[in-house]
Amino acid sequence: MPKSKSAYLDVLALPMEARDVSRVYAVGDIHGRFDLLQRMDSLIQADLRACPTGSSLVCFLGDYIDRGPDSARVVEWLTREPVRGQLRVCLRGNHEQRLLDFLEEPAYFGPTWVRFGGREALQSYGVSVPSHPTRENWNQLGRALDQALPDAHRRFLEKLPLALRWDRFLFVHAGLNPECPLEAQPVEDLLWIREPFLDSERDWGFVVVHGHHVVERPEFRPNRIGVDTGAFASDRLTSVVIEDARLRLLQT
User: Fold this and answer.
1) 251 phi and psi, to 5 degrees?
2) Which residues make beta-bridge pairs with 11?
3) How far apart are the first and last CA of the chain?
4) Confidence at residue 12, expressed as pLDDT on a 0 to 100 scale
5) Phi, psi (deg, nearest 5) at residue 115
6) Residue 235 region, left (φ>0) first, then alpha (ψ -120 to 50), else beta?
């Protein structure tokens, strides 16, 4: 059994050249829906043309892979440079973490990963999964993915930060554990937590913007904003647009 993760909250600070960001587009879970990613990018570009701003940043909240058919195409798109003059931050989701875990321990992580979308991610990289894999099958699949995964994709996945702090907002994939101090948030919670975070009324000193928990409509609470609208099944990929603490939505 692999060792548990022991690192704590890793907050990405904006570089000096990005400190003047005036608008953030926070995009929910994509899950292999390259078609919706393209539509969302078009919506963002159109929004910027219609409502120009000094400097904007697109923050993707994680879970780019699994479930939908085009995980590899989504990752390939995200590894490319954004449009000139725009900034992009991609955070780590639990599904990206699971792919990395699978590469390290395929026989241990494979059976659960394929049940929540890993099969589709593997297929997008040209790796077919048998109906009832054996332990040796899993090890073979791990080696096959290791060979099929482009170096740029591997670097992208390995370097994904856990959180981004901007203005009065903290962007993270799943949320924070209200029972832990802010400086001691386990990685597992940042990537996987649902309760007690979702019902917590804790005042963090900022608003947590997150994905991970599927909702029919984006949730706006005093201490958090949830924007995962289940794009892989609903066809609704959502972005919350934050500017001068004003909030609005873009949705495919």
Assistant:
1) -150, 140
2) 163
3) 41
4) 58
5) -75, -20
6) left
- Cβ atoms of 24 and 56 within 8 Å: the answer is yes
Using alpha carbons, select from 28, 25, 61 the residue that is nearest to residue 43. 25
C-alpha span between 27 and 164 (Å, rounded)? 13
Sign (positive or negative) of CA dihedral 118, 96, 199, 88: negative
Q: Which two tokens stand for residue 198?
A: 């979702």
- Residue 239 is encoded by which pair of tokens? 């972005």
Among residues 204, 217, 173, the alpha carbon closest in space to that of 10 is found at 173
SS3 28: coil
- Spatial neighbors of 125 by CB under 8 A, at least 6 apart, are 71, 72, 145, 148, 149
Helix (H, G, I), strand (E, B) or coil at 137: helix
User: How many residues comprise the chain?
Assistant: 252
Per the confidence metrics, is the pTM higher than 0.70? yes
Joined together, the tokens standing for residue 180 give: 């832990």
The β-bridge relationship of strands 207-210 and 238-243 is: unpaired
Q: Looking up tokens 């490319």, which residue turns up? A: 80
Please say whether the beta carbons of 73 and 35 come within 8 A.
no
CA distances, 59 to each of 25, 142, 159 (Å) = 6, 30, 15
Radius of gyration of the chain (CA): 18
Quick: pLDDT tens for 46-100. 999 999 998 899 999 999 999 999 999 999 999 999 887 789 999 999 999 999 9
Where do the DSSP E strands lie in 97-198?
163-166, 169-172
- Single-letter residue type at 141: L
In the chain, the DSSP E strands lie at 11-12, 23-27, 56-60, 87-90, 163-166, 169-172, 207-210, 219-220, 224-226, 238-243, 246-251
